[in-house]
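4.2 Preliminary Data

To establish feasibility before requesting continued support, the project team ran the inverse folding procedure on a target of 218 residues. The structure was first converted into the token representation described in Section 3, and no sequence information of any kind was made available to the design step. The complete token record follows.
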């Protein structure tokens, strides 16, 4: 006689996950994850600042704020920009961080020390305080915040294609964009103009700081 099978006991209901708890209790995280769809990360300890994961939805160009303000004219009005102390962070298309060294070489900035870096895949930046929310003193803040409900990728400077390496003078078209605006690839030139202007301003700041240093006498 076959013994009746006994069903396995049902597992207890899973407790509320850490992520669900964070979304409910942290309005900043909720704004980034739910409203924007951006991946974030927190540290292990309580009170750790929220970090944005780069290389997924965007990369970041990082440079002195003074240099960054001069480069803003090459950004569309919906391209997000953040400030953290004296540093400006410009959001650019994902993958741009890998392109930066070659692009600087192409623009003939490769051998010149610049305070211009890029953060891409696997990187983290402090999450700026969302608009309308209180932030701590000295925390990162949005100069141009992203718009919830809008895909950020379409607003970011990107690099589509580049021709064979050429001197900086040859890289600029008549309109100064670096590509022929009628060639169909002008949208990809935004990153070229942005990087060239940012590098120029970073170099000027470096030269000014060097010239202001007192002479050392033995």
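Position-by-position output of the design step:
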């Amino acid at each position: 006689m076959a013994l009746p099978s006994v069903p396995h006991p049902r597992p207890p209901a899973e407790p509320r996950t850490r992520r669900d708890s964070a979304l409910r209790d942290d309005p900043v995280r909720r704004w980034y994850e739910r409203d924007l769809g951006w991946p974030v990360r927190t540290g292990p300890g309580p009170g750790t600042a929220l970090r944005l994961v780069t290389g997924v939805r965007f990369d970041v160009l990082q440079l002195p704020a003074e240099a960054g303000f001069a480069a803003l004219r090459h950004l569309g009005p919906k391209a997000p920009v953040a400030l953290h102390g004296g540093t400006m962070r410009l959001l650019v298309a994902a993958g741009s961080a890998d392109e930066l060294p070659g692009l600087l070489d192409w623009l003939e900035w490769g051998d010149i020390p610049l305070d211009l870096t890029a953060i891409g895949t696997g990187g983290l930046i402090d999450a700026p305080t969302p608009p309308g929310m209180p932030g701590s003193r000295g925390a990162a803040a949005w100069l141009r915040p992203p718009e919830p409900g809008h895909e950020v990728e379409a607003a970011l400077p990107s690099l589509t294609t580049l021709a064979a390496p050429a001197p900086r003078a040859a890289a600029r078209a008549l309109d100064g964009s670096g590509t022929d605006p009628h060639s169909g690839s002008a949208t990809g030139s935004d990153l070229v103009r942005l990087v060239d202007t940012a590098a120029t301003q970073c170099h000027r700041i470096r030269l000014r700081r060097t010239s202001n240093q007192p002479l050392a006498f033995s």
